[in-house]
Amino acid sequence: MISIDLIQNLAKHIPQLSKSFIDFDPGWLVSGMPFLLWIGDRFRRENANSSMQYSSEADAKVQNQRLRDEVERLRSLLLMIANLNSTLNYERVLEMTLDLAHNALEDTGDSRLVSALMLFSKDDLFIASARGLPQADLRVTLPGSSGILGESLGNVQTHITHDIRNDPELRRFVSLHQCAVAITLPLVVGLEIYGLLLFGHPEGEYFSQDRVEILEAVAQQSMIAMQNAKLYRDLEQEKERIAEIQEEARHKLARDLHDGPTQSISAIAMRVNFARRLVQRDPNQAGEELFKIEELARRTTKEIRQMLFTLRPLILESEGLVAALRQLSEKMEENHEQKVVIETKDDVADDLEMGKQGVVFFIVEESVNNARKHAKASHIWVRLRRKGDLLYLEVEDDGAGFDVESVQSNYEQRGSLGMVNLHERTELVNGIIKIVSKPGRGTKICVTIPVTMEAAEDLHRHGFAG
Questions:
Q1: Within its chain, how far is the Cα of 193 from the centroid?
Q2: Are 37 and 155 contained in the same domain?
Q3: Which pairs with CB-CB distance under 8 Å and at least 24 residues apart come from 106-112?
Q4: Which of 194, 324, 385, 455 makes a 20 to 30 Å CA pair with 78?
Q5: Residue 384: which pLDDT band, with cuts at 50, 70 and 90?
Q6: Tens-place pLDDT, residues 155-177
């Protein structure tokens, strides 16, 4: 570890060092620890060398100047680390990682060093950032399953090869044909492998132990910065997605108000005006008209209550998901004469978080409305069962059905957001959705919802479980 005594001892001889540490916010030191460990080791070696007795004053001056130059270079690297850790732009982090690696190596003026940062996209590695590679190499994608890449990713360790031309994957890089040595460093956080760093150089002995340690520190440092930037990017994307869902909810509410209560209230106003003119001319007919107005007002009240229920059913918070589903069934029967059969046990979702219960309810509500409006189903079945830490939801109807593959391939272009809402709400509960349907044979929507984080990880590792 880097000791305060070491820093203070070296600071007595190298005044610039104290200024270097004063310039930095202590908060970034935690995330910069991998690189600082390497710097601390370098300081120990330099401090040991500086304590030697020199044969002449000239030798001492040369050594002191070398120490000053080394401290200044390390201070420059500290600045780069601080900038890397403070950058939340993911693409910028990738570029800065290679800049840091090139500057950390002693021969900063050596332009023969080639490098690439490769990340996984599905099952293949692609070049996310590079230095010294021609355009043809930038388009190369590799499986990372054989040669030095396969070894490095397989045992999650740094590997060096002097046989680049015979490597089954590295030989595809034209720029590496001029290199005598190549080194790969895996980029790993926990059990997740993001990709690797690749460096090559014409000198066979270029990657000394010291330089390997530098690059390993850079790899660790870059993974911390990449993970922070990725989390920030995912958060921004999630905020945008939530904003889109809220905007669509507002649009849906506006459409429902326009097509339902607004039309009904307009009709009530017209009928009241008509009844007012009938009062003196034909009281009996005016009474019949008032009766029709009353029926229309009652129907409008039901529509508004149904809308309020679907927006936020109070019974969901007071009695839970199963009670809310049963009330949804009753309201569908009362307002639309739609048969919705609920098949579940009372305690099936008792330990499910209230937020997740709300999402599951809206998945059911969306599916039931789609079946009623578009499939013209006579019957709709909602089944909810529990197996271990997984909750299984099925919404089945005997309606018209549709071609799932055709709809899913272009639903975004068609502007129909029913399918989008189902998929996005399933993602909110870390679930997996599967839709089975054929024209004329009804539709079945199956959603698997994990109750715990461990179940979520296992579910996404093995795929749909129904």
A1: 16
A2: no
A3: 106/211, 110/201, 112/201, 112/202, 112/203
A4: 194
A5: very high
A6: 999 999 999 999 999 999 999 99
Q: What is the largest CA-CA distance in the chain?
A: 127
Host domain of residue 25: 1-86
Domain match, 146 and 210 both = yes
Paired residues of 330 in beta bridges: none
Q: What are the φ/ψ torsions at residue 353 (nearest 5 degrees)?
A: -55, 145
Tokens coding 200: 């090559």
Per-residue pLDDT reduced to its tens digit, 260-290 = 788 888 888 888 988 888 888 888 888 888 8
Q: How many structural domains are present in the chain?
A: 3
CB 216: neighbour CB atoms within 10 A?
Answer: 18
* Contact (Cβ atoms closer than 8 angstroms) between residue 54 and residue 60: yes
For 219-231, b/e burial (b = at least 16 CB within 10 A) is bbbbbbbbbbbee
Query: Which residue did the predictor score with more confidence, 56 or 140?
Result: 140
* 455, two tokens: 């179940």
Same domain? For 429 and 380 the reply is yes
- Domain membership of residue 119 (yes or no) is yes
Name 375's Cβ contacts closer than 8 Å, sequence gap at least 6.
397, 399, 400, 401, 402, 442, 443
CATH number of the domain to which 385 belongs: 3.30.565.10
DSSP string, 30-93: HHTHHHHHHHHHHHHHHHHHHTSPPSSHHHHHHHHHHHHHHHHHHHHHHHHHHHHHH---HHHH
Give the CA distances from residue 16 to residues 51, 73, 100, 304, 405, in Å, rounded to whole numbers and listed in that order.
Answer: 18, 11, 21, 73, 66
In 3D space, the residue among 77, 71, 93, 95 whose CA is nearest the CA of residue 32 turns out to be 77
Separation between Cα atoms, residue 35 and residue 125, nearest integer Å? 26
380: tokens are 């709709």
β-strand pairing of 339-344 with 379-387: parallel
Q: What is the CATH number of the domain that holds 173?
A: 3.30.450.40
pLDDT score recorded for residue 459: 83
- Structure tokens given for 178: 């001029």
187 and 127 belong to one structural domain: yes
Task: Name the 3-class secondary structure at 342.
Answer: strand
pLDDT digits (tens, 9 = 90+) for 16-56: 444 444 444 444 444 455 555 555 555 555 555 555 555 55
User: At how many degrees (to 10) do helices 209-259 and 57-86 cross?
Assistant: 20
